[in-house]
Amino acid sequence: MKLNRVGFVGWRGMVGSVLMQRMIAEHDFSLIDQPLFFTTSQAGQPGPDLGPDSGHKIPPLVDAGDLDALARMDAIVSCQGGDYTQATHARLRSRGWCGYWLDAASTLRMAPHSTIVLDPVNRAVIERGLAAGQRDFIGGNCTVSLMMMALDGLFNAGLVEWVTVMTYQAASGGGARQMRELVAQMGAAHRSAEALLTDPGRSILDIDEAVTAALRSAQLPAAQTGYPLAGSLLPWIDRDLGEGMSREEWKGAAEANKILGHNGRAIPIESVCIRVGVLRCHSQAFTIKLKRDLPVDEIGEMVERANDWVSVVANEREPSLARLTPAAVTATLDIPVGRLRKLSLNGSGGHLAAFSVGDQLLWGAAEPLRRMLRILHQH
Ligand code: HSE
Questions:
Q1: Which of 101, 154, 288, 289 has a CA that sits 20 to 30 A from residue 253's CA?
Q2: Ligand 1 pocket check for 81: Cβ under 6 Å
Q3: pLDDT tens profile 251-266
Q4: What is the pTM of this model?
């Protein structure tokens, strides 16, 4: 399909900006005849600079509430958030618009007419959706997408009986303001102990007391997150669904099985989702029950062969500490998987431990959407 007119909404926010960076880096705009940029507040202002080789003359920004203008698009990519999707998508469809809607928000993910896109893992499911005339292609939850990229080889081999996941999720999952606030909290914690740190005579307990007082202080910047995150963690993400489960935890099984195209033979996936004081990489520790007890080397090969971004880190101290961390992975497309080890549980065999890290803004958000535009182009 030729991508004649593609509209972008929410392209200036955090996920939208990463999407723009990646599209410019991969020359994706050269596939689009006429990109059009929408705005909720600055209609008429000049459009963005797409770099020297895009070859486009970008028209001024268009009002994102203008349904007539949106309905002229062959595809719309929204990183504007769930409220915009809620307010716009159904109205466009009810006018008979049958273009492609690509979205980072969760609103339409579980709708029966949508496909969750993560093409290295579920290209076949995407192709089936396209062939069936589906028009809504939605990016998955970041934690789920990163798990699926990491364990692609095991899921797609049909080897997984069940998984439990303990997550260590970055502030970026809560939005740009929570990232800023985390850095501000780190600064406040450091300032509270700066003088004590430079005095070698001061006890570490004095330093600890000063930092703890700063984190508990009403002066700590915490308006966005609600609580101290620097030097601490938050064991609840997203809404409380009742019965002890957060919405983030519910998404694990629901979205993973939809990504894999499972109907009625869902893989049990349970998680405990935790926010940690990291900027933009989610980490996850898995316990995986395999249907067959394979040697760990064979499992490692299956994991590594699954896609171009996953790599296995030897389960040894030095490579784990050097490569399997948010500091190492941030702003890359790498999905390292390590700490692969058979667990002795129940003596029943087939229990595997694994740990993975991935950039929440790349494979967790922007990358599957920009790749879906390319798939539409080839379609
Ligand atoms: N809900 C995720 C989080 C991010 O809060 O980390 C978006 O998928």
A1: 101
A2: no
A3: 999 999 999 998 767 9
A4: 0.96
